[in-house]
C-alpha cells in the first residue's frame, strides 16, 4: 500500500508540474544560425524563391499562393507538410520583408502558432542567417508541451538551415 501511495504521489507531482508549465511559460523561444559561403544578395534571393523550398524542407508536399502583395509583406500562402505520415495544412503570412536584411514569417499550423524571424548579415562573400523563433499555442495542453520540445524544434530548424546552406552552395 505504501508503494502505491508513493507511485501516485510521483504521478500527481509530475502532472502538476506539467500543467503548471502552461501557466508560467507562454512562449517557447530559440535561435539557430548558419553561415553560407555565398554573397548576401544571392543567398537572400535563393532563400525567398518559393520553388526552392522543397530543396531544403523535404516535408513540404505543396505550396500555393493565397494572396501575394507588392513588397511581399502581408502576403499569405498555404502549405501542406507531411509530418510522421500525417498531412498538416499550414497558413504562412509574411510579417516583414526587407531585401538582403530580414524576413519574418508567421505560421499557423493547427494548434501551433510560430513566428520565424530570419536575419541576414554579410561578412564579405559569406552570409550569416540567424533564425529567432517563437512558438505558442491556442491550446493549453499544447502550450504545456512546447517547452519540453524546444530542443526538437531547434534541431529541426537547424537541420533546415543546414539543408539550405548545402543547397545554395551547390549552385
Automatic annotation (TrEMBL):
GO terms for MF: transferase activity
Alphabetic keyword roster: Membrane, Transferase, Transmembrane, Transmembrane helix
Pfam families from the UniProt entry: AHSA1 (PF08327)
Residue ranges crossing the lipid bilayer per the database entry: 6-25
Domain Activator of Hsp90 ATPase homologue 1/2-like C-terminal: from-to ranges: 39-133
Family according to the record: Belongs to the AHA1 family.
Identification of the protein by name: 1,4-dihydroxy-2-naphthoate prenyltransferase
Organism: Polaribacter reichenbachii
Amino acid at each position: 500500500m505504501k508503494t502505491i501511495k508513493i507511485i501516485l504521489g510521483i504521478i500527481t507531482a509530475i502532472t502538476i508540474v506539467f500543467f503548471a508549465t502552461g501557466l508560467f511559460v507562454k512562449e517557447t523561444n530559440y535561435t539557430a544560425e548558419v553561415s553560407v559561403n555565398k554573397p548576401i544578395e544571392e543567398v537572400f534571393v535563393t532563400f525567398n524563391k518559393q520553388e526552392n523550398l522543397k530543396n531544403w524542407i523535404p516535408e513540404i508536399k505543396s505550396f500555393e499562393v493565397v494572396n501575394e502583395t507588392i513588397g511581399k509583406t502581408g502576403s499569405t500562402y498555404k502549405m501542406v507538410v507531411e509530418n510522421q505520415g500525417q498531412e498538416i495544412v499550414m497558413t504562412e503570412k509574411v510579417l516583414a520583408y526587407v531585401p538582403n536584411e530580414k524576413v519574418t514569417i508567421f505560421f499557423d499550423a493547427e494548434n501551433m502558432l510560430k513566428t520565424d524571424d530570419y536575419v541576414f548579415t554579410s561578412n564579405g562573400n559569406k552570409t550569416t542567417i540567424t533564425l529567432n523563433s517563437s512558438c505558442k499555442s491556442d491550446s493549453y495542453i499544447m502550450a504545456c508541451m512546447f517547452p519540453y520540445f524546444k530542443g526538437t524544434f531547434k534541431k529541426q530548424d537547424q537541420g533546415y538551415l543546414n539543408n539550405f546552406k548545402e543547397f545554395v552552395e551547390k549552385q
